Amino acid sequence: MVGSASFEKAVSAGNDQFLEALPFFISDSMNEKASEGYAIIDIDDARRSGIMPISEAL
Question: I need a labelling partner for 21 at 20 to 30 A (CA). Which of 11, 32, 40, 45 fits?
Answer without folding.
Answer: 45
